[in-house]
Amino acid sequence: MFSVVITIYNKAHMIERTLNSVLMQTFTEYEVIIVDDGSTDNAIELIKKNENYSSFQVIKQTNQGVSVARNSGIAHSKFNYVALLDGDDEWTPNFLETISKAIIELPGAGMYGTSSWHKNILTGEMNDGTPNKYKGKIKYFDFFENPVLMPHTSAMVLDKLIFNDIFQNGEGFPAGMRVCEDWACFYRIAFSSSVVYIGYPLAIRNNNVAGQITASSKSERAKFIIHIIRFYNITYESWQNSKFKSEKYKKFLVFELRGRVIGSLRTNDYATINHLLNGLIPGCRKELNKFEISIYPNPKMRLISFSYIYFTKLTWRLKKQIKYIFKS
Q1: Which domains does the chain have, with CATH numbers?
Q2: What is the pTM of this model?
């Protein structure tokens, strides 16, 4: 029933932990497709030596990035539901079983995702990342209410028929993107289909793992802005072309853009602010008003920029609170 697509790049230090979490699943109707994105370590050698992994299909490609690897894994899958798993993350034993029950209970969604444990691989400390609103619930939900809180890649299962219908060229994950490639895919699916959230932490997101993007240096991460801009532009164009235009997406987009700006303001990184504002396609850029576009790149307006963004956040929270009171 499930095709488990695992992408790896130099994950020899983690891959057995990841694969063993799949073998421990209480639901056993699955295939495993491992896509090696040009690793230079001995990960594939470890996999081939272990008899427990003998039924797993291994696809090797030259290093082209995680997007191409995921797209390739999905293209080679034979089942309708594709469970994504990064080569340094894990699942709890009842991950697939719970997803299968959710599919039966709430059919027709383009994505099914669970919440996750956030695990510090160095200390073993684990934190439950389930939003309080969804704890202990399995339900359809509005993806754009707050996408930041929603399932990450290793907690997500995609309906392959819907995926192929939306991405007829098979490129759901944009090639070449080093960050936000997963959200660029998930947002576009959410524009066209329903999404089911499972409020139980059934995936384990391992942090502080060698080789992770989050472990990159500050100077390395600064280069990611071009990929972040591409994410905004891809999703905005998709939103414009979608049949059902979620206004919540636009509100969240503005919230996100202002968050990026204020992060750069804190470090006086005006080069990134200019890069962001100049790189956005016209429609996306216009979601910010002319006043803020004029003040953000100006170092002399730094205090006003801070004040404006914090004021908009306060106003947004007050509106939500008032709406909640009247609903009650």
Answers
A1: 2-215 (3.90.550.10), 218-327 (no CATH)
A2: 0.91
